[in-house]
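Our preliminary data section would be incomplete without showing what the modeling component actually yields. Below, a chain of 563 amino acids is followed by its predicted structure, encoded as tokens that our downstream tools consume directly.
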Amino acid sequence: MKCYLALFFLSLGLSHSLWAQQDYPQGYFRNPLDIPILLAGNFGECRPNHFHTGLDLKTMEKENLKVYAAAEGYISRMSISHSGYGNALYITHPNGYTTLYGHLNDFFPELQRYLQQQQYERESWNGDFYLQPGQFPVKKGQLIAYSGTTGGSTGPHLHFEIRDTRTEHVLNAALFGLPINDTKAPVPKGVAVYSSGSIYEQQPVLYPILKVDGNYMIPGITAMDTHVRLGVLADDFMEGSPNPLGVYSMKLYLDDVLQASWALNDINFDENRYVNAFADYRLKEDKKGWYQTLFRVPGNRIANYTFLNDADGALDISDGLTHMLHIELSDAAGNTAHIRGRITAGKSKPGTACKNWKAGQPYELKTHTLSFNAGEDALYDDLCFRYSEQASPKYYSAVVQLQDTRIPLHSNARLAIKLNRMLPFDLSSKLVFIHRIKAAALPGNNPQDAAAVSFEHGWAKGNIRTFGNYYVALDTIAPLIVPLQKNTVLTKAKQIRFKVTDNLTSVQQFRAELDGRWLRFVRAGNTYTYIFDEHCPPGKHRLVVTAADENGNSREYSLIFTR
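Predicted structure:
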């Protein structure tokens, strides 16, 4: 269940703005694979804390398919990481665009050799490697890499993006005339109806969508307010792929007058986390799906909606009459679906009188044992902030409950919790906030149970970006290094592997030295792999592996083997 970011422009002097699609070059970019395009994901889908910024091209559930340059240009950047795009390649094109190819296994041989040379010079496997225009020019259709499932990928596919080179905004590659066979219209599944006031201080009423004679209908809505707002749950699909995709644009009409609209064009990385305001974060956390909003909450600072009379998407039905609703959903190929229904205002329910934290304003809370500070951009909508503290002799502090994990924070907040006992000096660097962080919210998709924090005058202090349950504990246990080879005679082996995990936080540093020299290990999740090459000639060797966590707890593992 997906959702989409959009940009709106062009008022043309009308009472409401109209959206105009940029004229992208058609046919300039080719399919980067030599198989038909089938999508596992499309541009702008809602993902945890971000919009999806490209097209996920299926690779027949296989790895190492050939990947080709979508147009002529030069390789301008290589990015290597165990998270995000994994192994990624960037090509800058002379027409002002840049293409990105993500989750790759390897680059073409000459570039792969250059990459490994740079890694050994830096003594670092991960990082960004920038290149000059004359180093690796490419032609349209030239082999550049092999597909894979590196980084934050959950299965083999190619992540493909088209960016504006100057602004670095990511553009919808489906608008560039790629050969994508799509004749299926979006499928609406539900409508959420919100009263006026904060979305965090109410529970929207969810209405199912009925399909009658091929038409999508909403049962008659009796709203509990004179001004209401709507969110829509919908998926899109294409031929040959069962994967649910995202809707490209939506328009909301009241009595045939356009009230609100959005349409996907580009994504600014600086605004990516506003997905938590564009979709109803709480409904998503409650596993109700991604309800895309046709209104703007106060803390949503992206100017990507178009509204009638600057109403931010609120529908005025205060006249007590029954009004006609019409919602139009479209995909990038122009296929459309329509939802129709009626809405009438009912009796308004009084909202909560407590709004002690307003969106757009900073917030500070101080008690004898707790300090919480958030900036003006931390909250998307007004909130009656609730918290509790419960003393606990088991831990190094009270257990603090900050609001609700179903309410998102946009930016970091500063949390300080007072320790309830004296701390030896040598343990002051070992403090953590115990707080469960789900895999989907972390680089590399590995969950963790704690984050390192600092010690200051009897307080544990750190940045947080989620509400929930926190308390202070110690982390004195170094990461665990487990060899995945059974013996020390490796004359027939092709690789050496280790699994490295930490009990609370995350593995922050990993270094391997073979006979005193840095050795290139590749990270995938918690597994580190070295494939034998010229850096390990036949003979007897000593391999020393060191790993450290966020609190500086370090462990060393030594392996003497014969190659």
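The first strand starts at residue 39 and ends at 41. The first helix runs from residue 109 to 122. Preliminary results of this kind motivate Aim 1 of the renewal.
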